[in-house]
Amino acid sequence: MTPLQLVRQVTAITGFTHAAGVEVLAAEPGKVELGLARKPELLQFNGYFHGGVVSGLADHAAGAAATTALPAGKIAVTVDLHVNFLAPASGDRIVARASTLQVGNTICVVSVAVETETTSGPRVCAVANAVLRVVDMPSVQTPGP
Amino acid sequence: MTPLQLVRQVTAITGFTHAAGVEVLAAEPGKVELGLARKPELLQFNGYFHGGVVSGLADHAAGAAATTALPAGKIAVTVDLHVNFLAPASGDRIVARASTLQVGNTICVVSVAVETETTSGPRVCAVANAVLRVVDMPSVQTPGP
Amino acid sequence: MTPLQLVRQVTAITGFTHAAGVEVLAAEPGKVELGLARKPELLQFNGYFHGGVVSGLADHAAGAAATTALPAGKIAVTVDLHVNFLAPASGDRIVARASTLQVGNTICVVSVAVETETTSGPRVCAVANAVLRVVDMPSVQTPGP
Amino acid sequence: MTPLQLVRQVTAITGFTHAAGVEVLAAEPGKVELGLARKPELLQFNGYFHGGVVSGLADHAAGAAATTALPAGKIAVTVDLHVNFLAPASGDRIVARASTLQVGNTICVVSVAVETETTSGPRVCAVANAVLRVVDMPSVQTPGP
Question: Which ipTM did the prediction report?
Answer without folding.
Answer: 0.91
